[in-house]
Write a structure and sequence with these properties.
Protein name: Cyclic-di-AMP-binding protein CbpB
Radius of gyration: 20 Å
CATH class: Alpha Beta
Number of helices: 6
Organism: Levilactobacillus tongjiangensis
Keywords: CBS domain
Number of domains: 1
CATH topology: CBS-domain
Strand order of the largest sheet: 1-6-5
Bound molecules: adenosine monophosphate
CATH architecture: Roll
CATH superfamily: CBS-domain
InterPro entries: CBS_CbpB, CBS_dom, CBS_dom_sf
Order of helices and strands: HEEHEEHHHEEH
Oligomer: single chain
Structural class: alpha+beta
Number of strands: 6
Domain CBS: 9-78
Length: 162
């Protein structure tokens, strides 16, 4: 369990650490892999969400799976990617949250994943929570904890900086 004082500080204004769906680059499962490759190259991210026509979260597409596909097509030419769709290689969404204040879950998922999708109760995509945004919060916490709480070491704590 996250320490309640830490959770309160991190959770303050949770909307501010969600990157809203309207500015998250995405593709649909019916897009060609050539299109997905171009979108990923243009935005400079290695992995983005796959949405359906009603904005439901369907999967993830990454440069790594496209490159892998490319290596298996004759001649490994990029234009061959137009013969395949995102649906052919997209990855399942393993972790997501439906509430941006679920910090314990978010931090646990984030150990292995650079961003966590946020969906509503119908799995309609709302945005993403990224490591960068959470790290900004943790940075703030690390610098400002003493402005909010009095932190007194317990007897068994060895303070190396003294
Ligand atoms: P960051 O913590 O900012 O490095 O972001 C972590 C990951 O989140 C990136 O590598 C992307 O996969 C994803 N990401 C961040 N911002 C966006 C965005 N605007 N559109 C799509 N994916 C994004």
């Amino acid at each position: 369990m996250i320490d309640p004082a830490v959770a309160r500080m991190l959770r303050n204004d949770p909307k501010s650490y969600v990157i809203s769906a309207d500015i998250v680059a995405n593709v649909t499962a019916t897009n060609t892999l050539e299109h997905a490759f171009m979108v990923l190259s243009k935005v400079g991210y290695s992995r983005i969400p796959v949405l359906d026509a009603d904005d439901h979260l369907q999967g993830m597409i990454s440069l790594a799976v496209i490159t892998d596909k490319l290596l298996h097509v004759p001649g490994a030419a990029v234009d061959q990617l137009s013969n395949y769709t995102v649906a052919d290689v997209m990855l399942p969404v393993e972790h997501w949250v439906d509430d941006p204040t679920k910090l314990e879950t978010i931090l646990n998922y984030m150990i292995n994943e650079p961003f966590i999708p946020l969906v509503d109760e119908h799995k309609v995509f709302q945005g993403i929570i990224t490591r960068r945004e959470i790290l900004k919060r943790i940075n703030y916490l690390a610098h400002n904890l003493a402005n909010y709480y009095e932190v007194i070491p317990r007897e068994n704590v060895v303070e190396e900086d003294k």
